[in-house]
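Researcher: Here's a chain I'd like modeled. Treat it as a single chain, no partners, no ligands.
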Amino acid sequence: MKQTLQLRLGQQLTMTPQLQQAIKLLQLSSLDLRQEIQEILDSNLMLELDEEDESAPSLGEYLQEPPREDTSAPDHMASATGDDPPVAPEDRELNTTESTFDEPLPLDSDWTDVYDSPYPSGSSDSWEDDGDPLAQKSGVPTLWDHLSWQLAMDHFSESDRAIGVAIIDAVGEDGYLTGSLEDLQTSLTDWDVEDEEIAMMLRRVQQFDPPGVAARDLRECLMIQLRQKPPETPFCLEALKLCDHLPLLARKDHVLLKRRLKINDEVLQGAIALILTLDPKPGRRFGRRNSDYVVPDVLVSRRQGVWRVELNPESTPRLRVNPDYTRLVRRADSSDANTLLRNHLQEARWFLKSLSSRNDTILRVATRIVEFQRDFFEQGEEAMRPLVLRDIAEALEMHESTISRVTTQKFMYTPHGTFEFKYFFSSHVATSSGGECSATAIRALIKKLVAAEAPRSPLSDSNLADILVEQGIEVARRTVAKYREALGIPPSHERKRLA
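Model: Modeled as a single isolated chain. C-alpha cells:
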C-alpha cells in the first residue's frame, strides 16, 4: 500500500457559539424564553431588565378599545398652573376612605375590625403551621379528601369506618371503584367482616357527594344518580329502565329500544335527554388541575383597513447592558475583575444580538403569514389557502428548517382567536377548476355541513364527499372520513337523533 500526499479544497460550516445561541433562542417558546432570560440575568452581571422604558403598550392596553375623545378641559392644563386637578363628586367618598389609613387605630380595637383580613376567618392559626397562606388558599380538595370528610361527619362503628376507609382508598380519580368486594375483604385483614357488611357500607358510600361515586360500572353510576333525583322528575323511571340497554343506546338503535321498553318517541327522547344531564365520571371535577397558559408572540389587528403585525411587548422582557459596569470596563488595566467584566460584556452583547435577531425573524415570518392568509383573517376558516413551509422560506429567502423553528410553539393573537403559527400551514386538495383548496378549509366546510344536517337523517361520509364535489372540491370518501375524525365528529349512525 503506497502512501501519497493529496491537496483538497472544501468548505465546511462551523457552528460558532453565537450561532448556536441564536438557533437555541429561535426555537424556544415565549415561556421557555423567559426562563432562559432569567438564567442569563442570574449568571451575567452586565445584563439587567430595562424597567425605565414604559412606552411599549401592554397586552391589556392593546386589547382595550381606543379611548374616546374628551371635550372637557384637559388635565395637563390644571397641573401646568401648579393647582391640583378638581376632584369629581363621585370620587370624594373614595378619597375620604383612603385617608383613614393614616389615622391611628383605637387602643382597644383590632386590625380586622377595620380592615378586611387576607385570610379566611378561623384560619389565622392554621396558615402559620401549613406554610405559605397563598398556597393554602389556592389548594383544591381532592376526591379522597371530600369523601373522607363525609365519612368523618357521619356516625359509624369502628369496623364500618374501617370498611369505609378501604372503599374510599379504592375509588379512582374518575370516581369509580377500582377493585371488587373480594379485594376489599382481603385488604381488611385486621377486621373480621362479612361480604354483606362490605356491600352495605358500599351502598352507604355511594350516597355520598358527588352523586354516582364508588360505582363499579357506568350502568351503576347512572342509576345511582337517577335514584337520587326527586320522584317527580319527568322520565326518571324510563331512564332507569334505559340504563339496562346502554349498548343499544350507544348504537342509537332507537327502534329496538322503543320496542323493548314499549314507549314512544317522545318518552324515549325525554329519557335520553335526562341521561345526558348525568355525569359519567363524577370524580373528574375534584383535584388540582394545572392550566396551560399561552402568551402570544405577535399581535394581529386591523387598523384603517390594513392588517398590522406587532410583537407582543409582554412576551419578551426588555433587557439592557448595565451602564455603570460598562464604564468600569473602559479601564485599560488587565486585572481579573476587569477581564471578567469584559467577558460578561461580550456575552451580553451576543445575547442581545441573538434576541433581537429572534424577534426580527418571528416578526418577518408572522407578517408574511398574515399577507398570505389575508382571506382567512377577513372571511374565516373556509377561506384558508394551502400553505407549506417552502412557500414562506422562498419568500423570505430563508431555509425551511429556520421557518420550522419559528413556527413551532409560537402563537399569534388574532381577532378570530389565538393560533399557533403552524395552524396556518396545511396541505392542499385539487379543485375541478384547476385550483387548490386547503385541508383547513375543507374541515371547516365539513363542520358547517354537519352542523346544518337533519337530526333524523345525518349526512354520511359519501354524502359529504358528494356535496364537496358539487362545490368543485375533488375529495374522496376516505379523505372526508379522515377529516371528520380529526374534528372529533362521530360517524353518521352515532349522530342520528330523534329530533
